Amino acid sequence: MRDEPLVLGIETSCDETGVGIVRGHTLLADALASSVDQHARFGGVVPEVASRAHLEALVPTMQRALDEAGVTLADVDAIAVTSGPGLAGALLVGVAAAKGYALAAEKPIYGVNHLAAHVAVDTLEHGPLPEPAVAMLVSGGHSSLLLVDDLTAGVTPLGATIDDAAGEAFDKVARLLGLGFPGGPIIDRSAREGDPGSIAFPRGLTAPKDLVAHRFDFSFSGLKTAVARWVESRERAGEPVPVADVSASFQEAVCDVLTAKAIDACRSNGVGTLVIGGGVAANSRLRVLAEERAAKHGITVRVPRPGLCTDNGAMVAALGSHLVAAGVAPSRLDLPADSAMRLTEVSVPG
Ligand code: KG4
Ligand code: ZN
Q: Which cofactor does it need (predicted)?
């Protein structure tokens, strides 16, 4: 279907330089360069290192994406770029590059919201998103539940973490277990060898008194501290730390709370579709538990394949394509890199 818009998306909000190309809902290219290895020894993403890596990777990643899709910049109908939220310097590299390409090739530009792009990417695998839907975004920087009535117009926040993000909790727990960075995939693997019922870690904001004010909010900082205390007490007693059991029990606590609140959000809003996005959506236990619990209530779960859950350019292109198809006006060429871009803003207005 050649009438559908050909959209190129650029992502540089954190440590992945991504350039994706889509036609309508069809993914044509998804080129990625990661600086994750350069951050590993610091145990977290170092903003200045990330910005420099984006600068070096952007042009070659762009070229790879165009080659992979077999198109030139002249063929593209619009360029989308992550305007925010994210690391200011990192965002600036992508936004400046997108402006340069848009100006040189005389293409419309869309500055888009990274979190909305994590929702939109699912359309590349499962087609148009039924609306309304509930979206759960779980990444290194965010954990939110959103009501999506119309993805082009903005989303309604239902709740969010009041302290650490889910991915951040995975990264911190992996660090205290000496497992490396980023922690999510490592804990996911380690947990497969462990017993998720071996240690009873706390489920934040699930007590009846917390549900009054924080029904759809999350808290993972107490869980992280509980894991740290448990590990310390073992070490003080001179006993070995059962890493796989700690990983599995911690992961179970996170996934239990995330899925319970997501299903509750669907049911209380009368919504039959739950879409999960962001790096933590790659978690194998989260995917299984969400399916199991949703099925009991006739709710359909949509989660993209793990490679599309973590940051990439395809998600930005997918949201751009959705905006073009809906006739949303492009952004102005002086669009900002907005590190604190709000969820209610899906794209930078024209
Ligand atoms: O969405 P993302 O790639 O970047 C942000 O926008 O933050 O998410 C990265 C986060 C990291 O905290 C990483 O540990 C977590 O996603 N993550 C996972 C898994 N894969 C990545 N967490 C749990 N299980 C995984 N398999
Ligand atoms: Zn992300």
A: Fe(2+)
* d(C-alpha 108, C-alpha 263), whole Å: 39
Q: What values do phi and psi take at 165, rounded to 5?
A: -80, 160
Query: What distance in angstroms lies between residue 142's CA and the mean position of ligand 1's atoms?
Result: 10
33-65 b/e with 16+ CB inside 10 Å = b?
A: bbbeeebeeeeebbbeebbbbbbebbeebbebb
Q: The tokens 């593209």 sit on which residue? A: 76
Phi and psi, residue 114, nearest 5°: -55, -40
Residue 173 identity:
V
State the span(s) of the chain assigned CATH 3.30.420.40. 6-121+312-325, 130-306
CA–CA distance, 176 with 168 (Å, rounded to integer): 12
Ligand 1 atom nearest to 182, measured from its CA? 14
Contact 171, 15 (CB under 8 A): no
Secondary structure of residue 109 in the 3-state scheme: strand
Distance 48 CA to ligand 1 centre (A): 20
**Ligand 1 atom 3: the closest Cα is on which residue?**
310
Ligand 1 midpoint to CA 186 (Å) = 11
Fold of 130-306: Nucleotidyltransferase; domain 5 (3.30.420)
Residue ID of nearest Cα to ligand 1 atom 16: 279
Burial of 104 (0-12, 13-18, 19+ CB in 10 A): exposed
The verdict on the CB of residue 256 being under 6 Å from ligand 1 is no
Q: Is the pTM of this model over 0.90?
A: yes
Q: Is 6-121+312-325 a domain of CATH 3.30.420.40?
A: yes
Q: What is the pLDDT of residues 293-347, one digit of tens each?
A: 999 999 999 999 999 999 999 999 999 999 999 999 999 999 999 999 998 899 9
At 12, is the secondary structure helix, strand, or coil? coil
